[in-house]
């Protein structure tokens, strides 16, 4: 089994291009904040509609609309892309869903990356569920004879160190959970990201460009929540044909 990291969304020239990962179980990582928000929502509801387009989100009837553009809550939406805000309103959200309501999420970067990937298995990875998404990825890879590709979403085609760090954390757990030998040559490509996890990686996340933007916008608590390693057991899987994420 090969385990690798994708650099497709780090390059501005390739940003927005389709990426074929049909032979892999893909783990999409957008720490600040789409992945963390999705992990939070999956613990509150069974299904999340995903779109990269505000207009499409507005067409989903009977729905709580969640989203941001450049970090700011979209006008007319119920909530921004804030896991802390969602947890503060979890009773309202759960009641709405229990009464037949839908949840829809659109973000600047993370949901766009999801829609640009072609894979039979696309999991949502974050620092908050690193241990659990790693275990699920290994189970899927072994059962379906697939490779595992970690996909940092980065930030509009620019490097986002928090996603790279998360890839390293997940890679460490994959190495722990793998029941068969992983191709050593493929895993060598993950050494730089795994090395970062041996440093003060929390500080690096807080000093990232993404975090700086969130601090300016008043979302410091979201950053703090997003670095709480393994605090969420939920793992979402994306069904591109239906445009939804469900718990796996």
From TrEMBL:
<dbReference type="GO" id="GO:0000287">
    <property type="term" value="F:magnesium ion binding"/>
</dbReference>
<dbReference type="InterPro" id="IPR027639">
    <property type="entry name" value="ComB_archaeal"/>
</dbReference>
<dbReference type="GO" id="GO:0019295">
    <property type="term" value="P:coenzyme M biosynthetic process"/>
</dbReference>
<keyword id="KW-0378">Hydrolase</keyword>
<dbReference type="GO" id="GO:0050545">
    <property type="term" value="F:sulfopyruvate decarboxylase activity"/>
</dbReference>
<dbReference type="GO" id="GO:0050532">
    <property type="term" value="F:2-phosphosulfolactate phosphatase activity"/>
</dbReference>
<dbReference type="InterPro" id="IPR036702">
    <property type="entry name" value="ComB-like_sf"/>
</dbReference>
<keyword id="KW-0460">Magnesium</keyword>
<dbReference type="InterPro" id="IPR005238">
    <property type="entry name" value="ComB-like"/>
</dbReference>
<protein>
    <recommendedName>
        <fullName>2-phosphosulfolactate phosphatase</fullName>
        <ecNumber>3.1.3.71</ecNumber>
    </recommendedName>
</protein>
<comment type="similarity">
    <text>Belongs to the ComB family.</text>
</comment>
<dbReference type="Pfam" id="PF04029">
    <property type="entry name" value="2-ph_phosp"/>
</dbReference>
């Amino acid at each position: 089994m090969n385990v690798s990291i994708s650099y497709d969304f780090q390059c501005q020239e390739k940003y927005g291009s389709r990426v074929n990962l049909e032979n892999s179980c893909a783990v999409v990582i957008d720490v600040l904040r789409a992945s963390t928000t999705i992990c939070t929502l999956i613990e509150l509801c069974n299904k999340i509609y995903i779109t990269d387009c505000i207009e499409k989100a507005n067409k989903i009837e009977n729905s709580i609309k969640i989203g941001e553009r450049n970090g700011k809550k979209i006008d007319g939406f119920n909530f921004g892309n804030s896991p802390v805000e969602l947890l503060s309103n979890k009773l309202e959200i759960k009641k709405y869903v229990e009464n037949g309501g839908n949840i829809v999420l659109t973000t600047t970067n993370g949901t766009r990356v999801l829609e640009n990937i072609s894979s039979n298995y696309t999991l949502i990875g974050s620092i908050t569920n690193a241990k659990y998404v790693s275990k699920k990825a290994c189970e899927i890879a072994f059962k379906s004879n697939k490779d595992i590709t970690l996909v940092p979403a980065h930030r509009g085609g620019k490097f986002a160190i928090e996603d790279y760090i998360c890839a390293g954390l997940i890679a460490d757990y994959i190495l722990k959970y793998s029941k068969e030998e992983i191709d050593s040559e493929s895993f060598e490509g993950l050494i730089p990201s795994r090395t970062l996890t041996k440093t003060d990686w929390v500080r690096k996340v807080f000093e990232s460009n993404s975090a700086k933007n969130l601090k300016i916008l008043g979302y410091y608590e979201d950053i703090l929540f997003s670095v709480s390693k393994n605090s969420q057991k939920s793992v979402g899987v994306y069904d591109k044909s239906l445009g939804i994420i469900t718990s796996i």
